[in-house]
Amino acid sequence: MAATEHHDSAADPAAGPAESAGPATGRDVGPGADSGADDSGTDLSGKTTVERNPRVARWFHAAVYVAVILLLVTGWWLLLGNEGDPSVVARITGVSDTDVHTVTGWVLAGLTVLAVVVGAKGWRTFWRESVRFQHGDGAWFRRWPAAVLTGRFGRHEGRFDPGQRVANLVLVATLLVLVVSGVGLALVSGGPAFVWFAAVHRWAAYAVTPVVVGHVIIASGILPGYRGVWRAMHLGGRLRERDAHRVWPGWTERTTGRTHTPRHLH
Ligand code: HEM
Ligand code: HEM
């Protein structure tokens, strides 16, 4: 919730009357909130913000990542041959690593079914935006290694940048393989099917790990180019327009209705 946002002293003069910093609801506050198609508001320090992900997407994302992090920790613990030796998760919960893993695995499988059944529309948008590769994406990738530090990303028009689109496809594919093979492992208790599921499950675990680690490093905003983007998925799901414009220029312009980020946001 935006109420936890800190109030820095560099309040922007454009922030307007005091009531714009009033009870932070995470919704539009302050000037600009009612300017036509403009979906922007201001944060408590008066910087213009824009809503990136709706509440339902944020809660789904949070549930998935709690499950995936538990699965990664317990799965790797088992893979490294520590089955008899409780991991920190097993010690905290008092449940064996195998059981924590299997129960959390069922939770992730349930979330997947829920997403498909209840969130079909959201998935369609997510998928459509993730497979939309365009001319110019190659140039974006060439500039990317330097841009993560300088913030000078190549231009792209998507809701997701080209790197996110690749990550989305790999994440969805590998997580689906993990869910299917994991359910297989949980249901059969031996024989050639178990061996086959175990091999598939293990290889998918190898594939998903670097992608999740990379995503968390990027999305946490510790790299200068991605500073501030963590807010897109946390608290009110609103990030500063300046940060949004740097990473998703076309999307930000369409959302705010402004072709150029106002000078005071640079
Ligand atoms: C992020 C997702 C997941 C990751 C990274 C992951 C990783 C792993 C790893 C590395 C192992 C050990 C394999 C070995 O020792 O050869 C394992 C085992 C297992 N996983 Fe997963 N897994 C995931 C999701 C799931 C799901 C969704 C289920 C579904 C219920 C599941 C069920 C199992 C089962 C039953 C085992 C065998 C446990 C045992 O009896 O030793 N996993 N997993
Ligand atoms: C551990 C399992 C996780 C999975 C499977 C996952 C998956 C995803 C996916 C598929 C997206 C959609 C767009 C994109 O690719 O960026 C996303 C967005 C996002 N994730 Fe995660 N995530 C995980 C963990 C985290 C964590 C721990 C953070 C904490 C910083 C995080 C922060 C974000 C943010 C800020 C976005 C919004 C990006 C945007 O608006 O485009 N994620 N995540």
From TrEMBL:
Residues 54-233 form the Cytochrome b561 bacterial/Ni-hydrogenase domain. Keywords: Cell membrane, Membrane, Transmembrane, Transmembrane helix. GO terms for biological process: respiratory electron transport chain. InterPro entries: Cyt_b561_bac/Ni-Hgenase, Di-haem_cyt_TM. Residues 1-10 have a biased composition (Basic and acidic residues). It holds the Pfam family Ni_hydr_CYTB. Gene3D superfamilies: Transmembrane di-heme cytochromes, Chain C. GO terms for cellular component: plasma membrane. Residues 11-35 have a biased composition (Low complexity). It is a multi-pass membrane protein. Residues 1-48 are annotated as: Disordered. SUPFAM superfamilies: Transmembrane di-heme cytochromes (SSF81342). The chain crosses the membrane at residues 62-80, 100-120, 169-197, 203-223. It is found in: Cell membrane. This is Formate dehydrogenase subunit gamma. It comes from Promicromonospora sukumoe.
